[in-house]
Amino acid sequence: MNIAEQIKQLAQQYKSDVIAYRHHLHAHPELSYQEHNTVKFVAEQLRPLAIEITEGVADTGLVALIKGKNSAKKTIALRADMDALPITEQNNVPYKSKNEGVMHACGHDVHTSSLLGTARILNELKEHFEGTIKLIFQPGEERIPGGASLMIKDGVLESPSPQSIIGQHVMPLIPVGKVGFREGMYMASADEIYVTVKGKGGHGAMPEMGVDPVVIASHIIVSLQQIISRNASPKIPCVLTFGKVIAEGATNIIPNEVYIEGTFRTLNEEWRADAHQKMKKMAEGIAEAMGGSCHFDIHRGYPFLKNDPTVTRRAKQGAIHYLGEENVVDLDLWMAAEDFAYYSQQMPACFYRLGTRNEAKGIVSSVHTPTFDIDEDALEVGIGLMAWLAIEELGA
After folding, report:
1. C-alpha distances in Å from residue 114, one per residue of 167, 224, 321, 384
2. Tens digit of each residue's pLDDT (9 = 90 or more) over 6-52
3. What is the spatial distance between Cα 93 and Cα 370, in angstroms, rounded to a whole number?
4. Distances (CA, A) of 83 to 29, 38, 104, 209, 318
5. What percent of the chain has pLDDT over 70?
């Protein structure tokens, strides 16, 4: 029996255990940087395997090492994120969240349980590969500054230093049993924008007596879209969206100020920095020209995610070998953000998608919604494929 067949057999054998891991994690979600019980659960599953673990990395992160023969020859890393979202779950399932207002609505329970299953497979097969596999169980993917950046600062990419890193993420747009890959630029950077426009409030029937911040804010929101349409190269994907506007006046009351929140996303770091300056200058200039003032604050978020062509091409071919060509699809650009991007800026990386959709079972909800769930057959695919890709990457 070749190694791929052994992995498939072990994935099938461990599937029920991994589903149980996922049910426990899904029922007990924890928000970003609060994953104390989650990481404790991860450690409890790894200790009986006699895998070397380091706890307390970036406070609620954990790193584990699986050493094959000639462990110093090469190191590669596998990453899973562990945090949940502030969403109230609406699924009626036995493993429904027990923590009110907190839910694994982005599949991080899947990622964590999958990596635990992959660890069991790799640990059982460690006499069949050379090198070391570093498992990264990461906190805080959902919240700036991003747990990846904190773990990197805490030395996760050192002692030993991986030559490459692989991560997987659920994708409810892809049917269960399939996976997706894309070389090069894949996901966007993501910055948060917070704007306070100040004027002078007054009676709605006497606008000439004040300075209307609602009108100023309206001009700012519309005008900033010209930064995208007339300053960004059409070759650079770019999105500017304002999703929160608060003007606490009334039908006949002009407020003193308006508060705005938005997001800016792109796939070019030079343009990203340039756009920050242009947006701030334009917003402040409009407010001043209209008699008011503007405080324009940008919270710099994750960089754009790039998949190393060589590592990703190898991984895609490995997936074709393991799953069959009909079960491997090409991905388009994705303007969502992911803090795995920090790893991809540091070293050759591959971030691929695990299909979880099953229309026949009604499992079609998007991530970040209160009805998100997965077809758990994806777990068998996830643990087996990641184990296979890790061994293939060590041998590259």
Report:
1. 11, 42, 20, 9
2. 999 999 999 999 999 999 999 999 999 999 999 999 999 999 999 99
3. 12
4. 7, 8, 8, 50, 29
5. 100
Tell me, yes or no, whether 254 and 279 share the same domain. yes
Q: Which two tokens stand for residue 324?
A: 């069959």
Q: Are residues 23 and 136 in the same domain?
A: yes
- Co-location of 64 and 166 in the same domain: yes
**pLDDT per position as a tens digit, 214-243:** 999 999 999 999 999 999 999 999 999 999
CA atoms of 227 and 282, how far apart (whole Å):
9
Please, which residues have CB within 8 angstroms of residue 151's CB and are 6 or more apart in sequence? 57, 58, 61, 136, 138, 139
pTM tops 0.90, yes or no: yes
Q: Is 254 in a helix, a strand, or coil?
A: strand
**159 phi-psi bin (left φ>0, alpha ψ -120 to 50, beta other):** left
Q: Which helix (H) or strand (E) holds 185?
A: strand 184-187
Tokens for 124? 């059982």
Examine the pLDDT at 87 and tell me if it is beyond 80. Answer: yes
**Based on the structure, what is the number of domains in the chain?**
2
Residues 42 and 159 in one domain: yes
**Cα–Cα dist 103/77, whole Å:** 27
| pLDDT value, residue 353 | 98
φ and ψ at residue 62, rounded to 5 degrees: -145, 140
**Which residue range(s) make up the domain with 63?**
3-188+304-394
Do 37 and 30 meet the contact criterion of CB atoms below 8 Å apart? yes
Supply the pLDDT for residue 396. 76
pLDDT above 90 (res 1): no
The answer to whether 143 and 32 are in contact (CB under 8 A) is yes
Digit-coded pLDDT (tens) for 138-155: 999 999 999 999 999 999
Tokens of 254: 């002009």
